[in-house]
Design a protein that fits this description.
The protein has about 475 residues and is α/β, with parallel strands linked by helices. Helices cover about 40% and strands about 10% of the residues. It has an eleven-stranded mixed β-sheet with strand order 1-3-2-4-6-5-10-11-9-7-8, sandwiched between helices. The two termini are about 30 Å apart. Bound molecules: glutamine. The site of glutamine (GLN) has 13 residues, from loops.
Length: about 475
């Protein structure tokens, strides 16, 4: 399809205004969004499934509410895309895996229920690394996603599709999931905003488990305001997830007043060693903007950072090996046609269904949990996790927010790192620490691209449940740098 996207420049607020002023109906807006997204999808492969019937039904419900003079909801008529690890009732949910190529869930995740209750319109499900394992979206059984900013590059992972659709203007906002960086890193690679809320802030009910103690659902948007509004709609206690927090959800948008005056902003010097020079320069320019706005920049230390990647890849694989045991050929999945005995059914189904990265992690996870190795690896990794969380707690005694890079380098070329899993794992260094600590963290685009024209993300991290300060800093930076 030629021409500009009907979603270009649109925000949650502008769509609401357009609907209430009768500039368009939610139904015609959804129709135009779907037509454009479907026509453009072959460029990036970001959507795996479109849901036109569901989208139009939701849109018509918004129109009916407006016609009756009722409040159409905080996300009224907003075209939203959802990462395909979040289950949707009656709508295929693949987790990027051949094993679930035909899986149609019987229920909706809590986040899905909430965004539809708020009037959101789900256009479809987005491509991702298989079971959210990866940093480039190249581990999907349905082919990689291309970065809309530079089509020969990866969009980042594992929520590559959800980041790409927002950057491509084929959705206004989207949901992703983050276990060790899968929202922040693709947001940074695609030049948009991505938020990992505090662990427990958003219900995980209906999020296919990868590493349960680390998994988060979170929003992508083109602006901090859109991301904050989407988080507002899905956050809060849910009885269906025992780890979802009782903490009250503040009004995030009210905090977006453009001011960081007097805020103490911590700069972990060790996060700036080993960065691509451009990346470091862009992030430091952003720090200068915050300083000019009245933020007080303070050097801090997070001394256990060098151990984070090792600890993460032990804990995450251990949990993954247990969580993925449920895909056994009995439930959910397609079953191997060649199997004749029970044990063949398990083995052959899993052998045919899982991709290399999942197999690697299942083996690694089973190994670190096995008798004799548990204390040496798993238990030690848990101790390191505790020390990393303590590093942050100590830093937050001195500062209100921490700023850092998201990734050591910008989006890399498709194929560049697929055969080098260790280098892929090491690229997660700056996102993994926040994930292990369970604190809120986000990526907001630095004002200009690097010298190769690629976007760079600024990471902002705050105390547990203090998304408000994180959004305040991100928004102030965004306003000042535009
Ligand atoms: N890239 C990390 C990994 O491969 C993080 C993935 C994620 O956050 N889901 O595990």
């Amino acid at each position: 399809m030629s021409g500009a996207s009907p979603l270009a420049g649109q925000t949650i607020d502008s769509i609401r205004t357009g609907l209430l002023q009768k500039q368009f109906s939610a139904e015609e807006f959804a129709q135009r969004a779907l037509a454009y997204a479907e026509a453009e999808n072959s460029k990036t492969n970001a959507y795996l499934t479109f849901s036109p019937e569901r989208a139009l039904e939701a849109a018509r419900a918004v129109d009916a509410k407006i016609a009756r003079g009722e409040d159409p909801g905080a996300l009224a008529g907003v075209p939203i895309a959802v990462k395909d690890v979040i289950v949707t009732r009656g709508l295929r949910t693949t987790c990027g895996s051949k094993l679930l190529a035909n899986y149609v869930p019987p229920y909706d995740a809590t986040a899905i229920q909430r965004l539809e209750q708020a009037g959101g319109v789900i256009l479809g499900k987005t491509n991702c690394d298989e079971f959210a394992m990866g940093s480039s979206n190249e581990n999907s059984a349905f082919g990689p996603v291309r970065n809309p900013v530079a089509l020969d590059r990866v969009p980042g992972g594992s929520s590559g599709g959800s980041a790409a659709v927002v950057a491509q203007d084929t959705a206004v906002v989207s949901l992703g999931s983050d276990t060790g960086g899968s929202i922040r890193q693709p947001a940074s690679f695609c030049g948009i905003t991505g938020v990992t809320p505090t662990y427990g802030r958003v219900s995980r009910y209906g999020l296919t488990a990868f590493a349960s103690s680390l998994d988060h659902i979170g929003p992508f948007g083109r602006t901090t305001r859109d991301a904050a509004q989407l988080l507002q709609a899905i956050a809060g206690r849910d009885e269906m997830d025992a780890t979802s927090a009782f903490a009250p959800v503040p009004d995030y948008v009210a905090a977006l007043d453009g001011s960081v005056k007097g805020l103490k902003i911590g700069l972990p010097r060790e996060y700036f060693e080993g960065l691509a020079s451009d990346t470091g320069d862009r992030v430091m320019e952003a720090v200068e903007v915050l300083r000019k706005l009245g933020g007080e920049v303070v050097d801090i230390q997070l001394p256990h950072t060098p151990y984070a990647v090792a600890a993460y890849y032990i804990i995450a694989t251990a949990e993954a090996s247990a969580n993925l045991a449920r895909f056994d050929g009995v439930r959910y999945t397609t079953r191997s046609a060649e199997a004749h005995t029970l044990s063949e059914m398990y083995r052959m189904t899993r052998d045919e269904g899982f991709g290399d990265e999942c197999k690697r992690r299942i083996m690694l996870g089973a190994y670190v949990l096995s008798a004799g190795y548990y204390d040496a690896y798993y238990l030690k990794a848990q101790k390191v996790r505790h020390l990393i969380a303590r590093d942050f707690a100590q830093a937050f005694e001195q500062v209100d927010a921490i700023v850092a890079p998201v990734s050591p380098f910008p989006a890399f070329k498709l194929g560049e790192k697929v055969n080098d899993p260790i280098s892929m794992y090491l690229s997660d260094i700056y996102t993994i620490t926040g994930s292990l600590a369970g604190i809120p963290c986000m990526s907001v685009p630095c004002s200009g691209p690097d010298t190769t024209g690629l976007p760079v993300g600024l990471q902002i991290l705050t105390r547990h449940f203090d998304e408000t300060t994180m959004f305040r800093v991100a928004h102030a930076y965004e306003m000042a740098s535009n």
